[in-house]
């Protein structure tokens, strides 16, 4: 890993030329008054004249455009430096309101006054993400589904209608096109070091954003439209994100580690130091924005070293657009079908990969980088809890990829708890993990049933129903038979054989089964398809439970207040009888789901396995639970039909068990 010392740039020569040199080739001075009117409006025609087009197809000639716009950018930068903060606010603050984050753009102005390279890069990353979000809001004035990628957004007809195609072409020179400066991507993916981003490009984007605000105001006045800002994403259940401990002593050690760890490219060291400083200053969004690209750089360094493709450490050329990003680095195979060697060099490959998938990729996870880079998060309200985890995770990587003479750091009493947590990390947002959570939540709901208020037992017993008749005995017998077949696949310390229904179908058993480790990395398609259906079944079961709870509480109140008609009273008593049998059936289904989940990976590795046939069975169980939702709703209250349906479902489950088609049976 000595490569971390020798690499001075992650920009390939052509990309580095475009960003660092091309816009400086023209040295002539450009008069700011050419593009800024006396009343402070951006003269867009004068700006767009600097965009050049290819003669062949009239598409943007990005190279010539960057060369031509270079002096304009320098003029804008000098203009901003000549203004006081008060002058800037008076002249420009109004035109940033359309972004819904005016303060951020005023903050960027402050940064430009001092030209600290790390702060300029940070300001540019925040500016581009907020600008993208604001442009998406403008897009929705006309369009319906806002494009996810910035390049598609900038190329859209909708924005061309509002701002004009020539204006959008100016923006695409700076951001959104891999043929242009592509400032957003080279920063957010960690390719550019602080000193490689000219401050004048940040100044120009600040200037253009104000100009866009002026154009938008004219459009809104003409069309009588109202710009509506989409709400920010709010992180919920922050306790689920609380994985690693972090304290001031760990941060102090981290400041030493970044200078020594082979995970850090020396050219990127200022970003690391700035991130740790931001965290200590409670600037949590800044900390994470600075740190995420550096984690990607570190993993890219590991990836390219272990897979012996050092050239891929650099930015991808336009003709080789398969750049090395997290999707590729975390994949099982490389794009040439060879096995990815990165997991093999990680001491805890599962931990590192599962954490990254959890926090960055899984749809039900926080997807921190996507949401930050696309402007979906209110930076002022960014939660400390999220920053805590990213910083702590980064420290574990700094420790892991350090020289042998840094043993003292790794064994430091402040760091050991962190490393211990890292070694036992398990995915929290993979569909398999979410299913486990769903099952346990559903079981908690069903366990509330015995505590529900109910009428005296003698009223229930006098109701013509299942209890005491042959149908009731048949249901109990089938449940007992199915449990008997499943017991060999259950942890033995979680039940007793005296009362199989009450002792086996318990929350304790489900917790024990859910504690079973299941590798979520590289889950094959059959596994994910099966998990999708299992999750739907669990969701329906939970819905049934919530409906039973609501109906029971309501009917009890009505019974006590004597507001039920005769038929309603009979139906209520019928419900009380039915749910005595429905409870073990739902618990049985939850146990089945969990047992199947534990074995799904193992079985899907076996050949042949007709998982389509198995899916057909699961979908029949899903159909049963969906019908249960309908029959147990307050609108239907069809309890006779519920029990008939339950009887048929149990027959089907018992048949599948008899035919040894359950995953747990196939796994043995």
UniProtKB/TrEMBL annotation:
Ranges of residues in domain DUF4209: 131-211
Family annotation (InterPro entries): DUF4209, ERMARD
Source species, domain of life: Eukaryota
Pfam families cross-referenced by the UniProt entry: DUF4209
PANTHER family given in the database record: ENDOPLASMIC RETICULUM MEMBRANE-ASSOCIATED RNA DEGRADATION PROTEIN
UniProt-recorded name of the protein: EMARD protein
Organism listed in the record: Stercorarius parasiticus
Highest classification ranks of the organism: Eukaryota, Metazoa, Chordata, Craniata, Vertebrata
């Amino acid at each position: 890993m000595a490569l971390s010392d020798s690499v001075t740039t992650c920009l390939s020569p052509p990309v580095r030329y475009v960003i660092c040199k091309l816009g400086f080739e023209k040295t002539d001075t450009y008069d700011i008054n050419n593009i800024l009117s006396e009343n402070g409006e951006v003269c867009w025609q004068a700006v767009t004249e600097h965009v050049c087009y290819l003669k062949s197809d009239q598409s943007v000639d990005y190279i010539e455009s960057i060369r031509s716009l270079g002096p304009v950018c320098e003029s804008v930068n000098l203009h901003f430096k000549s203004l006081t903060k008060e002058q800037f606010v008076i002249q420009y603050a109004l035109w940033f309101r359309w972004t819904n984050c005016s303060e951020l753009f005023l903050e960027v102005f402050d940064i430009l006054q001092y030209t600290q390279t790390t702060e300029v890069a940070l300001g540019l990353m925040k500016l581009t993400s907020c600008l993208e979000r604001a442009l998406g809001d403008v897009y929705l004035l006309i369009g319906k589904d806002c494009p996810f990628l910035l390049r598609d957004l900038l190329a859209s007809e909708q924005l061309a209608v509002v701002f004009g195609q020539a204006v959008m072409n100016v923006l695409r020179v700076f951001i959104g096109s891999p043929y242009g400066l592509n400032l957003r991507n080279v920063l957010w993916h960690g390719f550019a070091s602080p000193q490689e981003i000219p401050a004048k490009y940040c100044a120009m984007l600040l200037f253009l954003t104000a100009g866009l605000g002026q154009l938008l105001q004219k459009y809104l006045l003409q069309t009588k439209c109202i710009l509506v800002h989409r709400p920010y994403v709010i992180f919920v259940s922050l306790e689920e994100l609380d994985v690693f401990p972090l304290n001031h002593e760990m941060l102090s050690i981290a400041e030493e580690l970044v200078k020594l760890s082979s995970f850090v490219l020396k050219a990127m060291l200022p970003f690391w130091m700035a991130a740790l400083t931001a965290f200590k200053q409670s600037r949590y969004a800044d900390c994470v924005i600075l740190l995420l690209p550096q984690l990607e750089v570190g993993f890219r360094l590991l990836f390219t070293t272990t897979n012996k493709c050092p050239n891929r450490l650099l930015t991808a050329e336009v003709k080789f657009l398969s750049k090395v990003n997290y999707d590729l680095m975390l994949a099982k195979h490389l794009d040439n079908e060879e096995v990815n060697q990165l997991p093999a060099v990680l001491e805890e490959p599962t931990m590192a990969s599962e954490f990254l998938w959890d926090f960055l990729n899984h749809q039900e996870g926080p997807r921190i980088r996507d949401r930050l880079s696309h402007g979906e998060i209110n930076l002022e309200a960014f939660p400390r809890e999220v920053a805590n985890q990213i910083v702590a995770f980064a420290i574990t990587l700094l420790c892991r990829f350090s020289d042998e003479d840094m043993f003292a750091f790794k064994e430091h009493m402040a760091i050991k708890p962190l490393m211990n947590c890292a070694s036992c990390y398990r995915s929290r947002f993979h569909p398999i993990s979410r299913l486990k959570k769903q099952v346990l939540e559903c079981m908690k709901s069903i366990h509330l049933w015995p505590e529900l208020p109910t009428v005296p037992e003698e009223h229930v017993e006098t109701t013509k129903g299942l209890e005491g008749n042959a149908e009731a005995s048949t249901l109990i017998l089938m449940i007992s038979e199915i449990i008997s077949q499943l017991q060999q696949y259950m942890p033995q310390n979680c039940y007793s054989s005296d009362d199989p229904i009450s002792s086996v179908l318990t929350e304790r058993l489900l917790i024990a089964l859910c504690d079973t480790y299941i590798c979520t990395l590289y889950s094959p398609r059959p596994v994910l398809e099966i998990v999708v259906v299992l999750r739907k079944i669990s969701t329906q079961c939970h819905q049934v439970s919530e409906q039973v709870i609501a109906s029971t509480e309501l009917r009890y109140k009505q019974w006590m207040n004597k507001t039920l008609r005769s038929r309603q009273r009979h139906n209520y008593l019928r419900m009380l009888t039915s749910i005595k049998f429905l409870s073990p059936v739902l618990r049985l289904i939850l146990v089945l789901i969990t047992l199947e989940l534990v074995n799904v990976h193992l079985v899907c590795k076996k050949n042949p396995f007709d998982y389509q046939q198995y899916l057909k069975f699961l979908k029949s169980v899903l159909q049963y639970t969906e019908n249960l939702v309908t029959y147990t709703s307050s609108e239907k209250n069809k309890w006779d039909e519920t029990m008939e349906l339950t009887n048929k479902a149990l027959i089907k489950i018992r048949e599948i068990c008899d035919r040894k088609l359950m995953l747990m049976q196939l796994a043995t």
